[in-house]
Amino acid sequence: MPESRVELRGVRREFRGGAGVHGVDLAIAPGEIHALVGLNGAGKTTLMRLMLGMLRPDAGEVRIDGTRIDDLAPAAWARVGQLVEQPLAYGELDVRDNLRLAARLHGASRAEASAVADAAIEELDLTRYARVRAHRLSLGNRQRVGLAAALQSGPALLVLDEPTNALDPAGVILLREAVVRRARSGAGVLVSSHHLDEVARVADRISVINEGRLIGILDPGTIDLERAFFALVRADDEAQSAA
Amino acid sequence: MNAIGIAVAVEARKAVASRVVPWTTGILGVGLAALTGALLAAAAVGDERVLARLGPLAEADGWALLVGTAAQILAAGGFGACGILIAWLYGREFADGTVAGLFALPVRRSSIALGKLAVYLAWAATMAVGLTVLLTVLGAAAGLPATDPDGATQLLRIPVLTILTAFLAVPAGWVASLARSVLAGIATTIILLVAAQVCAVLGVGSWIPLVAPALWAIDPGAVPWPALASVLVVPAVFGGATALTWARMQLDR
């Protein structure tokens, strides 16, 4: 088993105006659930996009299972699940067809895709919506479809950006259990969230990102996590202002 | 199944389930039949304005008149329909916000782009057959001789024109991908359509791929075969450019 499911070394990507990520080092081990927390615009989504090849870094490198993503064989992406931004759910297709297509794009055969989709429907409690077209689903159920698509192909690396968005409490619990199951089977998981209480329940480590830099680690067992988070961010902001 | 095969299967499923494909197909078919029928009926009763618009075609009769009239409509209307469809096929991923889900997959984005092109060309081939059958029925209903060998030859221009027109609209898919917008692809279609009309009016069309198929369909003798074959360059170049655009795409805007 590789040391890290994903590793970022000195990754930098800057946009006009100075936003972006600036020299980030991060590694997620097999079986680890790693949470990324930060204020809006801190660079969480940019970091995840870099990890998944949605953006190319200006400097540094990203490795998945030890291989630079530029050199990664197409088949290796079959074991990466992701939900960054909007779910992969086409309005004209029903839930089952959406998940079947997502499975096929992950390399499943026609027959495998049906079985994979059915298992995901059950895991995310979407059975009663299996034949409902995605454009008729509530926001929360569309999010469940996107999560099912990310989770269903047995990912070794799972990257979820604000996965609890629009989910009801039952959905949050289902997601939490599914993520823990994937980690127990050896997946490295990166989850971004604004909800500190939520990530504290599942994360093994919590990284804090501010202004595109990782500024510290929080212990998920910390009693007042919110206070600790804001203390880190405030200290970083003051250090940056003083510099 | 290889990556291209999967991409074609996925894109075909999306296209079949969509509303855009059947509506475009229906509007093109019904519109072509209705306009061709109306123009021929007007010409038959000697409507001066229609006869003037038909130009040299007005002197033709039988299948030649029907096919020539339909070809004029198809060259413009069919191009519009093709441009809208291919712009939607590519641009919808941005409009629907599904493009991020097409990253980090074993099926490369260039394969997905080529899968979309394959589905589009398959639709064009289906339309080529369907429109030919439609015009055959229209001609038969109008009392044109069913056993006229010249009629069959005339009708063969319809599938060729449909396919070539679809080839010419491929740049709209590339622009929709580049601009990440369905509307940008549709705007490209309109601009190309206007450019083709201007070229036709100026009489500089035979060797311009954008105009050659329409001129050929109306008057086959006016366009040499090599000029018609040059149309193949358009899907090859712009299909390749579209695949490259998708391969190099970043979610940076």
Task: Please tell me about this protein's structure.
- The complex is a heterodimer of chains A (243) and B (253).
- Chain A is of the alpha/beta class and 243 residues long.
- Chain A has one domain: P-loop containing nucleotide triphosphate hydrolases (Rossmann fold, 3-Layer(aba) Sandwich), CATH 3.40.50.
- In chain A, 36% of the residues lie in helices and 24% in strands.
- In chain A, the strands form 2 sheets. A 6-stranded mixed sheet of chain A has the order 6-7-8-3-9-10, with helices on both faces. Chain A has a 4-stranded antiparallel sheet with strand order 2-1-4-5, with helices on one face.
- In chain A, strand 7, helix 5 and strand 8 form a beta-alpha-beta unit.
- In chain A, helix 2 runs parallel beside helix 4, helix 3 packs across helix 4 and helix 4 runs parallel beside helix 5.
- The longest helix of chain A has 18 residues.
- Chain A is globular.
- Chain A starts with 5 loop residues before the first strand and ends with a helix.
- Chain B is mostly helical and 253 residues long.
- Chain B has one domain.
- Chain B contains 12 helices and no strands.
- The model of chain B has no long low-confidence stretch (mean pLDDT 92).
- The chains are: A alpha/beta (243), B mainly alpha (253).
- At the A-B interface, strand 6 and helix 2 of A face helix 1 of B.
